[in-house]
Structure formats: structure tokens, C-alpha cells
């Protein structure tokens, strides 16, 4: 299941980080730190999300 979670993490983290960066840019954030924080938040939030999705796919509810 770790392998599945790692594959899902690579996809989910990229999607979340880019979505958060776009949200910051749309809301007028143009400096470096808000963009880095948004990308970092996407990568951090993706870990439990990927693990939960992997558990559901593997059937380990």
C-alpha cells in the first residue's frame, strides 16, 4: 500500500500545490513567500489525503 500511496502522493501533491498557487495569484499575491507557503501547504496536505485514498483503494477500511 505504501507504493500506491507514493504514486498517489506524487499526483495529488502536484495538483494541490499548483491549485493553491493559482488561488494566491488570483487573489493578488505576487511576492515569493505567499507563493511558497501555498505550494508547501499543498505538499503537506497531500500526504494524509494520498494515504487515505490508498487505504480505500486497497480495501483496508
Total DSSP E strands: 0
List the uncertain runs: none
Strand content: under 5%
Q: Termini separation (Å)?
A: 12 Å
Which structural class should the secondary elements be placed in?
A: mainly alpha
Q: Provide the succession of SSEs.
A: HH
Q: What is the typical, i.e. mean, pLDDT? A: 95
Counting DSSP H or I runs of 4 or more residues, the number of helices is 2
Helix content: over 70%
Radius of gyration, Cα only, in angstroms? 14 Å
Describe the largest sheet: none
Shape: elongated
Keywords: Membrane, Transmembrane, Transmembrane helix
Protein name: CTP synthetase
Give a quick summary of the entry.
The protein has 61 residues and is mainly alpha-helical. It contains 2 helices and no strands. The chain crosses the membrane at residues 7-26, 32-54.
Keyword list:
mainly alpha, 2 helices, transmembrane helix, CTP synthetase, membrane, about 60 residues
Architecture blueprint of SSEs:
Blueprint: H1 2-26, H2 32-58
Amino acid at each position: 500500500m505504501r507504493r500506491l500511496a507514493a504514486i498517489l502522493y506524487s499526483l495529488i501533491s502536484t495538483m494541490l500545490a499548483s491549485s493553491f498557487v493559482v488561488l494566491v495569484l488570483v487573489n493578488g499575491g505576487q511576492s515569493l513567500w505567499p507563493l511558497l507557503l501555498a505550494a508547501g501547504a499543498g505538499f503537506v496536505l497531500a500526504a494524509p489525503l494520498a494515504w487515505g485514498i490508498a487505504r480505500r483503494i486497497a480495501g483496508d477500511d
